[in-house]
Inverse folding.
């Protein structure tokens, strides 16, 4: 078993101070829901517990942006009014992640740091063109969501904030398919973001981030082109589902899961569209 | 290292190891064996306890992370030999078979009713979605939690 020491702080400045002085291999822990499963194999000398740093647990809106502290748990995110209104997809992902017990501990910062291909929050970050702020011994840097992939953090870097654009006329939704309905790891996930004209029932512009298809989520450009200026109706939903089936076939041509995912994405598309626009799934599938 | 932790209303100062989990501390150091180890990876909920008012898997919390927190275990419910309303409801509704999942189920239900005394069936199902039972089929457990909520409402 790997032996490490563990230290905890309740101020971010104290963490930064420790990082500047610590010459060993450092890991961070917050919700610990991934950490404990991996701790016996990981190599590090020192683990810094950031779960009790209150200043990393916030949601704030200012200057056209929403800032989310990396220590926000998924329970807190799912219940937060501003997140439910403005980043609905994130609230939906938060309430589908793990179980009540996991959501009460797991944090968005830890989820992003793990950068698993089946990650639930990354498709949403990518769809929104969000960015994250990381703090290390040498200062602060900002990383675009598109650049987040496994092991993207440098030595001793801690995610401190996630920044989303704050917009008034965007709507978003998230869906995932796994091997069971709850406490499920995504086999396929989708975050849909649209700028919508309600009077004309028309999408001004739209974007879909697909998760669990590659190492990190992708937003196919041809899907964005297709969604532009579309009227939302059953025909649109079916055409979009077919386009996404083609997209999956092109993205993972040799993979054993391709036939399943190419078909499953249709149902996922209908689910997400019906949540986003209030269209009943039966209406869609009958046609 | 030393931590201070309150468990079922009693404060303890304990020496814990960096890799030690809250579940290990409760079971081996405090001899509170109600919380069970099932999967050991946050899937089954048999180790559920309430930490600062929220249900957590005690196998997924490092003991050190529980410093200065308030923990409630199943033993904290039946103080002075008197069963909690939820425990009684489990007995009366036949919600216990082998019993291995029961402490975790009861603690998940307790955390729910502490926050929401009038839960819908959907909310009850969501609450126990992280607690696996391989005997009952969940129907009697859901009924028991609903019965406990009804009794608490009546008592209020």
């Amino acid at each position: 078993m790997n032996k490490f020491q563990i230290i905890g702080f309740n101020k971010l400045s104290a963490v930064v101070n420790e990082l500047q002085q610590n010459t060993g291999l450092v890991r961070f822990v917050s919700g610990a829901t991934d950490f404990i499963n991996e701790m016996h194999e990981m190599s590090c000398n020192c683990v810094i517990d950031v779960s009790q740093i209150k200043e990393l647990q916030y949601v704030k809106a200012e200057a056209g942006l929403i800032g989310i502290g990396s220590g926000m748990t998924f329970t807190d995110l799912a219940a937060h009014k501003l997140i439910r209104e403005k980043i609905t997809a994130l609230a939906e992902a938060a309430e589908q992640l793990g179980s009540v017990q996991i959501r009460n501990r797991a944090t968005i910062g830890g989820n992003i740091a793990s950068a698993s291909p089946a990650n639930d929050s990354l498709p949403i970050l990518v769809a929104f063109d969000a960015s994250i702020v990381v703090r290390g011994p040498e200062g602060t840097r900002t990383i675009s969501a598109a650049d987040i992939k496994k092991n993207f953090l440098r030595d001793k870097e801690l995610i401190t904030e996630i920044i989303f654009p704050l917009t008034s006329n965007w709507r978003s939704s998230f869906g995932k398919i796994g091997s069971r309905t709850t406490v499920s790891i995504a086999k396929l996930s989708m975050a849909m973001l649209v700028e919508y004209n309600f009077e004309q029932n028309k999408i001004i512009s739209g974007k879909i981030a697909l998760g669990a298809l590659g190492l990190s989520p992708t937003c196919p450009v041809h899907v964005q082109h297709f969604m532009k200026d579309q009227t939302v109706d059953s025909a649109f939903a079916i055409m979009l589902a077919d386009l996404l089936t083609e997209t999956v076939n092109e993205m993972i041509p040799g993979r054993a899961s391709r036939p399943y995912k190419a078909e499953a994405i249709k149902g996922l598309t209908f689910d997400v569209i019906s949540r986003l626009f209030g269209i009943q799934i039966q209406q869609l599938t009958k046609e | 290292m030393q931590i201070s932790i309150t468990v079922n209303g009693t404060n303890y100062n304990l020496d814990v190891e960096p890799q030690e989990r809250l579940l290990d501390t409760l079971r081996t150091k405090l001899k509170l064996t109600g919380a069970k180890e099932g999967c050991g990876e946050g899937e089954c909920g048999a180790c559920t306890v309430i930490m600062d008012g929220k249900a957590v898997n005690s196998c997924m919390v490092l003991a050190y992370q529980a410093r200065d927190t308030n923990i409630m275990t199943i033993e904290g419910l039946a103080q002075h030999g008197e069963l909690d309303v939820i425990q009684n409801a489990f007995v009366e509704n036949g919600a216990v078979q082998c019993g291995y999942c029961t402490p975790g189920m009861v603690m998940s239900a307790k955390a729910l009713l502490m926050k929401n005394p009038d839960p819908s069936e959907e909310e009850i199902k969501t609450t126990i979605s992280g607690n696996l039972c391989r005997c009952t089929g969940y129907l009697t457990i859901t009924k028991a939690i609903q019965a406990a909520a009804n009794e608490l409402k009546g008592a209020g």
